[in-house]
Amino acid sequence: MSAVIPAKLPIDDATEKQLGVGEKRLEHGVAVRTKKRLTSRTATIAALIIAALWTLPTFGLFISSLRPAELVNTTGWWTIFQNWGFTLDNYAQVLQAGSGTLNLAGAFVNSLAITIPATVFPLVIASLAAYAFAWIDFTGKNWMFIAVFALQIVPLQMALVPLLSLFSRGVQAGDTEIFSGLNASGSYAQVWIAHTIFALPLAIFLLHNFISEIPRELVEAARVDGAGHGQIFFRVVLPLTMPAIASFGIFQFLWVWNDLLVALIFADGAVAPMTKLLAEITGSRGQDWHLLTAGAFISILVPLIVFFALQRYFVRGLLAGSTKG
Amino acid sequence: MSHFLNWVATFNPLVQIVLVVLAFLLVIAALLFFVEIAPRSGRRYTIIRLAVCISVPLIVMLALGSVLWAAAIAAVLGGLFFILDYRAKAGSGYMFQLVGFLAPAVLLLAVGLIYPSVKTLFDSFLSGRGNWVGIDNYVWIFTQPEARRTVLNTIVWVLIVPAVSTIFGLAYAVFIDKSRGEKIFKVLVFMPMAISFVGASIIWRFVYTARPADQEQIGLLNQLVVWLGGQPVQFLQNSPWNTFFLIVVLIWIQTGFAMVVLSAAIKGVPAEQLEAAELDGTNAWQRFINVTVPGIRSSLIVVLTTISIASLKVFDIVRTMTAGANETSVIANEMYTQYTTFELGRSAAFAVILFVLVTPIIVYNARQIKKQREIR
């Protein structure tokens, strides 16, 4: 479970509008007009204090990761001016650290190899399903959609262990083998599939909200021109929902990258991602702060880059998730 | 299937990404192609539909490693589906399209989420060796002091984290609304949300580290204690306070979420209302309590419930910082611990308890949807 969860609770139309207005003002800076009058010094100082409190731990980690090992482990990072010294050795060392089968550099690559497919798969499958829920009429559509909606709150924990045994042992009906199991414990397959499944309920739900808002005329026009559902989906719906897909994609990316629980169960040995290896290192070498700080910083680097580069989408996705219902 | 996966696994991980994504997109492209041509009339298309209906289940079953006659049954079912589709009221090819779009998601959800959840529910009545033990696992959880402590801790998490994060987030949103450089302020508090729980745990373990009193402290918090004239404290070892120090980490993360949503909500409160209240001679605090807070009520509820779910399921923080030692364990962590010691029944029972605790929120959600539908 990662830190990032787009809010997904339904709220009434008035609130939706209110959040929408607020979001627009945020982006266009309309609020500036009243701002000057309201600017207050106490508020600024209070905000400064909270911001400092919130940033200090991360800042300390970053400074420490750049200090020589003996200094990190004997002096506080706030004494950096008395005990001056910077080095990149910690990073070089921690990339080689790890368990017998895997070092942190390998785990970094694993994280990438797990995260990218596990972001693409659920997005594609969910947009297909969301299209069907939005634009194909069938009996039982409503209750099926509500069932999917309800599934998103089933905790992962309910599914983990049986899913693992499904992967490793398959399914037998009596003596007959129906599914032989993946037999692919050395590959990322288990993690990909697990993440895909766990992401589906929320992805279908959120994408459905966007796909169903596409103007009916556009879809009808395409249909009149002779397009079937395949073409409508690919040529009309997909391009129009790209912003929504992108912003859910960011969440899914961060979610998978930051996940520990699924990795602990499904990614063993040489395919483990960084979170799992770091948690292990924290357990086994918990006092080697020069390694832990550098390792932690490497693991949060990619999310931070994604976050700063795509911040607008990130905030928008968060608000969309909480307002569309 | 496993051959393909094992073949893929022999490559460099980065090549694997490309290979597997390409293979996946090819399958989806084929799916879209057949969906597109499905409703077309004419003999040729009917034959194509029939071929797809029979061959796809066959290939899928064989790929999954099924025996031949099981795969043959699947193919026959596919053929039956073809006839059903052929006679569909909405014209032949209609059901074919529908299934094409829905089947991947529905199958994955059924096999990967619904079946395992039911299995877990069933498993919670079995012992670790697979014998039927009735409700013994649940009795164990609610009678063993350690297990009871786990449940209690989870409740403490759920009571504290949503309330405190929301209050901090709301206060901060109000403060930055009235100060310059709002965007930068926002980013600073929001940033922890992008960091993994594991990363956050390491950051805070570093803040909490303690060294013997005669040495220099390297943890910020203990340095503060020493500066104030105290003795260094083992923050993560002394129960019951250690749970609160773990809770701080989740608050640190979730405040950013609360702040962003509430900040947008506050800006959506009509300025006229605030001005009217001001003309009535109210002070800032009265305006905040009587105008702003009622105005953002439903956003507040969204934030509170979302953070409640996150705190119920908290796992990574406890796992990384203490692994549940010194009476800090929570339900999600205990579920994993029992699994690693092969007590599958107890593990399942913990999962079920977690599910039961989340259920009120599902019911609440369902009600909200219904309300919303009625409004529309």
Give me the secondary-structure topology.
The complex is a heterodimer of chains A (325) and B (376).
Chain A: H1 13-28, H2 32-38, H3 41-65, H4 69-72, H5 89-96, H6 104-135, H7 141-151, H8 156-169, E1 171-173, E2 176-179, H9 189-211, H10 216-224, H11 229-258, H12 261-266, H13 274-284, H14 289-309, H15 311-323
Antiparallel strand pairs in A: 1-2
Helix pairs in contact in A: 1-15, 3-14, 5-14, 6-9, 6-11, 6-13, 7-9, 9-11, 10-11, 11-14, 11-15, 13-14
Chain B: H1 2-9, H2 13-37, H3 43-63, H4 68-86, H5 94-123, H6 136-143, H7 145-177, H8 182-190, H9 197-208, H10 220-227, H11 241-268, H12 271-279, H13 284-295, H14 297-312, H15 316-321, H16 331-340, H17 344-375
Helix pairs in contact in B: 2-5, 3-4, 5-17, 6-7, 6-17, 7-11, 7-14, 9-11, 11-14, 12-13, 16-17
How would you describe the overall organization of this protein?
The complex is a heterodimer of chains A (325) and B (376). Chain A has 325 residues and is mainly alpha-helical. Chain A is built from 15 helices and two strands. In chain A, strand 1 (171-173) and strand 2 form a beta hairpin. The longest helix of chain A is centred in the middle third of the chain and has 32 residues, at 104-135. The model of chain B has no long low-confidence stretch (mean pLDDT 84). The interface between A and B is large, with 150 and 150 residues.
